[in-house]
Amino acid sequence: MNIKTMGALAALALLAACSDDKPMTTGAASSSGATTAGIVPGSEEDLKTNVGDRVFYSFNNSGLDADGKGTLDRQSAWLGKYGSVAVEIAGNCDERGTEEYNIALGQRRANSARDYLVAKGVAPARITTISYGKDRPVALGSNEDAWKQNRNAITSVK
After folding, report:
1. What does the alpha-carbon distance between residue 53 and residue 72 come to, in Å, rounded to a whole number?
2. What is the pLDDT confidence band of residue 24, given thresholds at 50, 70 and 90?
3. How far is 127 from 118, CA to CA, in rounded Å?
4. Residues 59, 115: Cα–Cα separation, whole Å
5. Residue 151, SS3?
6. What is the C-alpha to C-alpha distance for residues 5 and 121, in angstroms, rounded to an integer?
7. Domain at 48, CATH number
8. Of 22, 57, 66, 94, which cross-links 150 as Cys (Cβ 3.0–4.6 Å)?
9. Is the torsion defined by CA of 113, 125, 120, 28 positive or negative?
10. Does residue 21 belong to any structural domain of this protein?
11. Per-residue confidence at 2, pLDDT binned at 50, 70, 90?
């Protein structure tokens, strides 16, 4: 048998071994409540992956921009869908500034995100806030790229 024939037979054997009679799905929810990607609807991973869990802020600012409002709009809809889920919003800052200043700024950031969600109809009792100031950076480094990532409010499922 020549090499071309052996290669063709090997390819057919691989295709036959890989086939099954199950229909292909792409992210649809299964009967168990989990998506085919393994993400449980209403979970922390669902929020992070399918909705977005963080809002970013400009330097020395706690006001929401259009991107932040868009993320919070999606979070509001998600929280409306999963009415029993409670969340915590953690306000964070970059490394610049004093500890006291950054704790206060982080709290203002968390509060601005919470207030937006409440204005969109999420019950205030479902949302807690905390400020970590500059104590929990998500990106290490002393440059603008790291600072941009660390100026945020992160929503997590409680």
Report:
1. 9
2. very low
3. 9
4. 20
5. coil
6. 66
7. 3.30.1330.60
8. 94
9. positive
10. no
11. low
How is residue 145 written in tokens?
Answer: 């790229």
Residue 25 pLDDT exceeds 50: no
Q: Collapsing DSSP states into helix, strand and coil, what is residue 155?
A: strand
Q: Is residue 83 in a domain?
A: yes
Residue 34 has pLDDT above 70, yes or no: no
Angle of helix 99-119 relative to helix 66-81, nearest 10 degrees, comes to 60
Q: Is residue 14 part of a domain?
A: no
Per-residue pLDDT band for 36 (boundaries 50, 70, 90) equals: very low
Q: What is the pTM of this model?
A: 0.77
User: Are 155 and 113 spatial neighbours (Cβ–Cβ below 8 Å)?
Assistant: yes
Which candidate, 120, 23, 5, places its Cα nearest to that of 68?
Answer: 120
Domain count, the chain: 1
Amino acid in the structure at residue 26: T
Read off the pLDDT of residues 81-101 as tens digits, 9 standing for 90 and up. Answer: 999 999 999 999 999 999 999
Strands 127-133 and 87-92: parallel
Tokens of 101: 């200043």
Residue 113's domain spans which residues?
Answer: 39-157
The answer to the question of residue 53 being in a domain is: yes
Edge-to-edge strand list for the sheet holding 127-133: 54-56, 152-157, 87-92, 127-133
